[in-house]
Fold each of these.
Amino acid sequence: MSHSPSDQQEAGEHIAESAADSTSNHGSGPVQGHHYPAVSAFDNAHVHLGDRHSHYYAATNSHQANGTASSIADKLFFPEIFQRYETIEERYGDTLDWIFDPPEDEQPPCDSFVDWLRGGDSIYWVSGKPGSGKSTLMKYLVDKVQNGNFFGNDPPVVLCCWFWEAGQPVQHNVSGCLRSILWQLLQDPVCQPVVSKALSSLDIDKHELTEPRLRAALRSALYAVQNMSTTIVMFLDGLDECGLEGGNLLKIARALNEEFTCLKICISSRPEQVYKDAFLSNPKLLLQDLNKGDIDEYITQEFLSDPTVEKLLQGKHVNTLDDLRWSLQDKAEGVFLWVRLAVNSLLRGISHRDSLETLQERLRDLPSDLDNLYTVMLARAGSDTKYYESQAALYFELIIHKEMTLDQFAVAINESFRERCFDGQLDWDDSVLREELGGEDLAAWINVRTSGLLEVKDNHVPAFVVTSKPKDFLHMLQQRRILFEGGRYFRHALQVMR
């Protein structure tokens, strides 16, 4: 699917107009004293280059019927429904398999997720420290439950909501959660007819989507599904990201769990006291107590097996290798993200020709908490050259202000390109745009200048959402998103430093 030059120019002019309206008084960035007009270039730009819709998930779903069901789904839908899902890391290698297949000779200190899935009637609670990998685990559970055979020949309907404090209000409030769940029910080919009928009787498509009306709609939809003897498994990730709304959502979840025998709910959050008290008698797991083997696998594969590390360790006593492994394990304290960042820092040291002694000293000096670790890494990231420091500051400020896709970012940092968009002076030939916007080197450019603290990743689309995958360069950029390594934890560290 390719867009005509006129369509591309129209979309480009829209973004250029936003940039033209921006001022240089937005505020200083991580490097004190810098002011960036480009930061506000996208405050009002909801149109991607070459794509007049605000989000590709709005593409027609093959499961969605015409008529009333379609109008209801359109009203429930919002572009950010799966935005948080896209940013969540996939599991590393074969990690997390223990949740479905624990070793026979070792009982993990948690309640069996499989036993709960097949017979439990309480909410299952996944908890863990910040950065321990809760969202990655939840994403893995969604995939396995959706594609496994835990319920024999009667596959469940899997629903999920990914709360995100850094996103729009609809991404971390009750109404957004209810809209997302109802929209997903309308996408399921089995549930769609009965859910559509239930919602039509409430005239949900003709009224304002207030929270009470959405709650009534969800109860009607669940009653309709329950009469079909279909099991629904609902995953709610990051309840702690909902602020004051978290308590309300928990009450709603408990009420639904008690009312509908067809519904099983799995919730994740940090182990804050309010949730410890709420889930005291529920089946649960504490992730940092269970992922030691996963962390060890990552250290072995990504650090100790790296050719440069193997060369550095040649001829050294085996205790040296074990010391590095256990030092990383010990300082991580079950936080998978910390290990990833620490390994990146150590590999960076090796690329600078650090000796083994310097490497060990670097590891000893790494803070064991995420915020301080980011501070150290940011200081090191800015030490390459003054030129990189200035560019890295701009990139960080852009992304902390608004996470964006790669096409948006390319325009934000290219003032000349924006001006020519506005003046209608651009050649929209695909090969010309590749050269103008940095081509395939753009992701590497970002990585080098931020020392890997900003990452470019492909958007991950849930299996039940149908999208077109065009091949032209602009759409290739649209399918990639720039993220903080470590998500909201890095964002918080940057905000503290500003």
Amino acid sequence: MTAAMRHLASIEHMPCVAHARWNSTLFMISRLLKNHEAVEATLAKQRHKLTLLTTSEWDKLKRLKTLLEPCRYVTELLGGETYVSCSVVLPALRHLMHTMEVSDDDPAYLVKFKTAFSKDLSERQATLNDGWLIVATALDPRFKDLKCLPRGEREGVWNSVAALLQGTPTSATPEPTEEPAKKRSLLLFNSDSESEDEEESNKALSRYSAEPTIGETDCPLQWWSTHAGAHPQLSALARRYLGSPATSVPCERLFSLAGNIVQKKRAALSSENVNRLVCLSNWLKEKKQQK
């Protein structure tokens, strides 16, 4: 308890650590705030030389708890496995950046925290596969208005989607192997068909753009299943992009579960029985969530 109180009392000086441990720091702050009165009442009855948190420091913890709540929501959202998560990455990051914008009313410790958090988040975002995530966001009928992107970048997104419909490589797709010179020369005679393909892809995008957006709680894959007849090319592309998870958390969660099952005393389990136990564990988890 003493170490935790010292850690929390100086948390405004370590924003990068708080960023790296979003949820653990939030849970620690929440637990201490919940037991605020009990902690002080218990320590008041004991002889100690501890430096207790001041009223100002308790207020700082409350402000930081409110600021970290969206971080917990985003980390849990991107780590889900029962819904489409790939197209949620950019809107979620945009929400975090908006939450961490410095305002004139922010005290110095919050300004320092928000500035360091935003800088670290920008550096991490620079390593993402933006090409894939942008196309996935555009093909999600919940976010196809692309409000999470600057206005000047939205037209380029639709150009990338149109290129994918025509089968040309973009930054979101791997580069094809080089074709022989004779085959490449034959492509020069396909100018008429290429213009037709471009016209068809533009029509397909226009029809999709005219569709109304759906609610954030609606399933985009179900929407595409219903509208596959109206958008046959885009529906196939949407299944490809929306089917990928945002993070490796679901896979790591599965490996952790299998690791808890296959232990030293159960090393003789066959692969079939391990699969069955993993499935049973998953079914029991879903059953508990439905109650």
Amino acid sequence: MKKTLMFDALREATDEEMDKDKRVLVIGEDVGHYGGSYKVTKGLHAKYGDLRVLDTPIAENSFTGMAIGAAMTGLRPIVEGMNMSFLLLAFNQISNNAGMLRYTSGGNFKIPIVIRGPGGVGRQLGAEHSQRLETYFQAIPGLKIVACSTPYNAKGLLKAAIRDNNPVIFFEHVLLYNLQEDIPLEEYVLPLDKAEVVKRGLDLTIITYSRMRHHVMQAVDILVQEGYNPEVIDLISLKPLDIKTIAESIKKTHLVIIVEECMKTAGIAAELIAQINEQVFDELDAPVVRLSSQDIPTPYNGKLEQATVIHPQQIIEAVKRLVKLKA
């Protein structure tokens, strides 16, 4: 095991896959000589050269379209969005091309492309740089969507995404890049479609993903000291949702809280509640509670920005209310 920062874990995954497979390449703004805005591609240009670590103009629709074309010819491109919000400029390429070409070509083309980069609410990055785009892409057929949350799962999931023959949208949170954790020295790969049961418990199920996993665990540490015993699930896979793991937990606890940084209206929690109601409604002892961000553009002002997202104290209060209601 070795202590590794998340951005280093992502860099190691990219480097290992590029070394193993000459078809893997990186495309994006400042990914080459500069090493990426968050240093995920640091040192790769010196090792692999211009053709495999390609600096592009500021033209997301163009280089994303080029990467999709490269994938159609058999290459395995990794597109880095300097900020995932910028990839709204490539929404047409991601939806009409990446998501649909395998189907519309009758299976003649595979689209083995990873589109990755930082997103989420940072620290005073402003509204346009603080967007959570997971539900924008969730409605697109043909995509897989992953949200990493630790250095360990970041590395294992990125390696799996690079090897997958389908387009994968890979969300990293801008505030988690400096998160440090022991990860194995030997190679490992994690499944793209499985949730992680972070903590076993009996009182209720807390479902979360990305940065909110850490807010949830801060709350859980306090709750456990007060005698509560929640179960915590990190979704990891946002599309498809691992409803099997979620259903097994609900059949045990019968109470659910969903904690997300996504907007409340039409967010990940909204889709998850729909699937829970369809599949395990009779197991619920109370309606599902969702704790989501405010439905407003993220303010630049630091205090207002903090007020838009969920914090551990709100999670603690929601757990106590729900458990008390059941009692």
Amino acid sequence: MPKNARVTLCCGPYESSGVVEHRTFRLQGLQAALTARGHQCVLEETRERNKVELVVNGEVVFNCDVKQLEFGGDGKLDPVCREAVAAVEEAH
């Protein structure tokens, strides 16, 4: 995958403190990791609860449960973020 790919982060709502809604706190590290590698991130809300999907060129290249991502941070120490960035960079 060339640098500066456009990556769509599709994220559904999840429960925190008894309230289910869309939040981006757990996506911050993933966004930071992708941006640091030169990719452009676009957030898109979905209805699928607890789901995160990374879409490149119309193809889902990575998905996980949003609660697997670490809260906040830069994504450097989060193994799920590293796996997601690798999946984006191996996409065609």
